[in-house]
Design brief:
It contains one helix and 18 strands. By secondary structure, the protein is mostly beta strands. Strands 9, 10, 12, 13, 14, 15, 16 and 18 form an eight-stranded antiparallel sheet that branches. The termini are far apart. Belongs to the allantoicase family.
């Protein structure tokens, strides 16, 4: 059990933890996972939230999670002075299931549209939790980016979101827009092998495989942007990178929903079909792309299947 487990409580009160989110977020829901905590899971939880500025992080005493220790009275006094127990309750006290396969995952919807920076996870009265998953949308710290600054338009740190995809068997396409470089295939996007691939493969004069079918993912950019550079990174994917890829773009009005993007016929080609190679960062500049003006969404199409570690869409905010 590599989760959070507290000692069996023999004093008044209940146990809790303060979590600082990396970015302000509008939270849509939670998954509280009690995996493997079968006889020692926390029977009840609640979640509180607050929106604090960065200076507050310095006020929380750091603890390094050494097993067999509890917060000292000085640490408790410091946190109590911050009145975290008075934060907004976004998930009221609720029951959890034991850590068996059928009952371990406990889902909760969050009814608030506020942006939060910190969470307080309360367990009643004690016990263990394996994982907490927080689902929602990042709110960019810089709401009015500099239009003259070149940024990664698709990065989740700049508000990029994966809104649709065809296949995420081994890894989700949302991993493509993580700011940090990948550590392994595990934090990239990898699909299952397509079952409609032919028994014998052929290529055209460009060396592009002639195979029916593809996999795709669609991303909403944090801001409408003008693209200047595209990076397709297959690092760590040595025997399972796609044969080729295509990038398309579209401009969708802000008030239009994302749900029909996969069938929309207005997508424009930005990067034509291009050969990919294993364990390599592929960089494409303006002279290798089709100019299609400002875009709000990006669609990456890989053929026939496989994995990518990162996708970077560098450019400028459309004024």
């Amino acid at each position: 059990m590599d989760g959070w487990e507290t000692r069996r409580k023999r004093i008044p009160g209940h146990d809790w933890a303060i979590i600082s989110l990396k970015h302000p977020c509008v939270i849509k829901g939670f998954c509280i996972d009690t995996a493997y905590f079968t006889g020692n899971y926390a029977p009840k939880i609640s979640i509180q939230a607050a929106k604090l500025d960065e200076s507050y992080d310095k006020l929380f005493p750091l603890r390094h999670g050494k097993a067999g220790t509890a917060a000292s009275s000085d640490v408790m006094d410091q946190v109590n002075n911050l009145q975290t127990d008075e934060w907004t309750t976004i998930i009221p006290m609720s029951n959890l299931g034991a850590g068996y396969a059928e009952t371990r995952k406990n889902y909760f919807n969050c009814p608030y549209d506020d942006a939060w920076t910190h969470l307080r996870l309360n367990i009643y009265p004690d016990g263990g939790i394996a994982r907490i998953r927080v689902y929602g949308s990042i709110i960019c710290a810089n709401n009015v980016p500099d239009i003259y600054e070149k940024i990664d338009l698709i990065s989740r740190d700049n508000g990029g979101v994966c809104v649709k995809y065809s296949n995420a068997h081994y890894g989700h396409p949302r991993n493509l827009i993580i700011r940090e470089n990948s550590n392994s295939m595990a934090d990239g996007w990898e699909t299952a092998r397509r079952l409609d691939r032919p028994p014998i493969l052929n290529v055209d004069h460009r060396g592009i495989l002639q195979i029916p079918g593809n996999e795709w993912a669609i991303f909403r950019l944090g801001n409408i942007g003008l693209i200047s550079t595209i990076i397709l990174d297959t690092t760590h994917f040595k025997g399972n990178c796609p044969d080729n890829a295509t990038i398309k773009g579209i401009l969708i009005p802000p008030n239009q929903q994302d749900q029909h993007l996969d069938t929309n016929e207005d997508w424009k080609s930005i990067l034509p079909v291009t050969k990919l190679y294993p364990h390599k960062s592929h960089v494409y500049n303006l002279n290798e792309m089709n100019w299609c003006g400002p875009v709000s969404h990006i669609k990456i199409i890989i053929n026939p299947d496989g994995g990518l570690s990162r996708l970077r869409i560098w450019g400028y905010i459309h004024p």
